[in-house]
Amino acid sequence: MAFALLAELAFSRPAVARDDFTLAPYMAAYEPSTVDERGVWMLADEGERQLRDSPLRIRDGGLETYLRNVLCREVGSDRCTGIRVYAVEVPTFNASMMPNGAMQVHSGLLLRARNEAELAAVLGHEFAHFELRHFLYGFKNRRGTTDAMAWLTVLGGISNTPVGDTNFSLLGSIYQFNRAQETEADLLGLKYLAQSGYPAQSASEVWQALMAEADASALGRKQKVKAKYSAGFFDTHPASVARASYLATEADKLPPGGDARAKEYNDAIAPYISRFLAAQMKLNDFGGSEYILGNIAERSGWTGDLLFARGELYRARANPRDLQQASEFYRQAKLAGYAAPELDRNLGLSLLRNGQSDEARIALSAYLTARPDASNAKAITALLAN
Known about the structure:
Serine Threonine Protein Phosphatase 5, Tetratricopeptide repeat, disordered N terminus
């Protein structure tokens, strides 16, 4: 009872008919009419140009087309007309929309979503902010303040420097929303789910998985498991425990929905898994990364890509027992068909650090045979000479 009361007090909710999940007729994208509004659109257009040309954008293989199709399935073809979707290799869990209709989707979200329905729930939530024009209300509330000047400085910096993870986060800060708006977008997102045929509980399940990952990250860092979670994006999102709870409660009032389209999702992101995992390993989050690997393995089994990434994870932590375990994962990855020469290099380095010189020499020699012109070939040769 106390938890339910806390959830009710923590979040203001828009007045919506709980027994009617029919979407209102969609109005075309809003066109700015004042100087201030044209200014924020100008910033969004510049941000989209940088996003479009960013080296982090994933252009190959039709991934962006797939993401746009998922969005259209979630919100309806009338709503997604004119929306541009950009996939970017940023390992954090995030997606966001700009007021001009451009959406960015981080590789970290694609790595963590367990099926198409969970991805659709996140994309639908971000589209709800767009449909409700939250960015415009937020801008009007902030205009004339020092924040507006800070935004101009941020976009000025983005326009003159390569776009990276930090700049994407700064760009997102321009369109951050308050907690009441987050809840309003959650509830409209549930209406999209009701019309799409995806399982109604998908939105709640996203947050349950994020909480489990947060627990795993904390344990991996030998920290206490948190009793209260935050989404981590400027702390404007509702706490994850309460959010998962009210999303589950509201979803119970929806038609249950059908196929989560897990196979379709796995097939769509399979060509990118190795790339996404490599970016995740760089976060130095042993517990969280191990949790993500386990989640993917539950769906696809321990493939060569997953085993190689697991070897990388253990090798980075580098305790003697971790190096021994990493070596075993590399061997398993090779048996599973992973054939990149870097496997032999990293296997050899792991074995060498644990004093297993004979097998290490075999692996490092195999690497040099496959990559004689590698930038580290001289260093590897020197190790073999000792």
